[in-house]
Amino acid sequence: MSQPSPLSTPLPWDLVAAEYSVDVAPFFERFAERALDQAAVGAQHHIVDVATGPGTLAFRARERGARVTALDFSEEMIRQLEARAAAGGDTEHFTVRHGDGQALPFEDDGFDAGFSMFGLMFFPDRDRGFRELRRVVKLNGVVVVSSWVPLDQIPILSTAFGALREQLPNLPPPPAELPLASEERAVAEMSAAGFRDVAAERHTESMLASSTRALWDRLSRNNAPIVMLRNRLGEAAWAPIGSAIEARLLDRFGDGPQSIPMTAIVTSGRV
């Protein structure tokens, strides 16, 4: 049996929580809007956002007038989320919960729609995660889950991680297949969990950076696998590794502005 991904534990997400709120959330909002549109979320709905992270989808749903419950297993993500919700002054219709997406602390049939944006893909037991979303969403309600295409379809990121492995050849090998990384796999897993009318589509948005150096600086602060490794090695050991990766990126892509197409598999199904 394969080992669970380190990304299925709270630590890496605790480490990037503050940076996610600043750097990642604005980019993820575009994927969140697509998911909300697929579920036709409006003011009459109560939605649950599982593995909410910085609450990207949750806050966009609240702007549409929906009542929102947002859950994550990272205590630091929850702290960031609670602070932002309190600053918005609308905690009556915006509930934040710390918990496990594989054992949701909610009653059956409590929500009109459910979401997990780039979260459920990392669950150790994805079938359980799908089934928990199905359990807490009402009959005929819609659940939307998003995941990423394989890394080799994003050249600048695959180059960065390839250079990282050259610097640290004893790293555990990457998984043979990224979870839910194709429409066929995503549809099969969601259908197996009992959903109806399951469909998956690709949605691409461009991640922009003013330069290659700026992009690498951002990744070294907010990419969970990289930050976890950087934290484990310590800054003194990480510095030459980070410099070598940056040099590889500059050699291949130059130091001009970067526009990186990021493609998600957005999968929806009806309870």
Instruction: Determine the CATH topology.
Output: Rossmann fold
- Would you identify the CATH architecture? 3-Layer(aba) Sandwich
Q: In which order are the strands of the major sheet placed? A: 3-2-1-4-5-7-6
**Cα separation of the termini:** 31 Å
Number of strands: 7
Q: Work out the strand percent.
A: 15-25%
Count of helices?
A: 9
Largest β sheet strand count, sense and barrel closure: 7 strands, mixed
The total number of structural domains is: 1
Structural class determined from secondary elements: alpha/beta
Mean pLDDT: 94
Which CATH first-tier class would you pick? Alpha Beta
Helix content: 40-55%
Radius of gyration: 19 Å
Q: Spans with pLDDT under 50 lasting ≥5 residues?
A: none
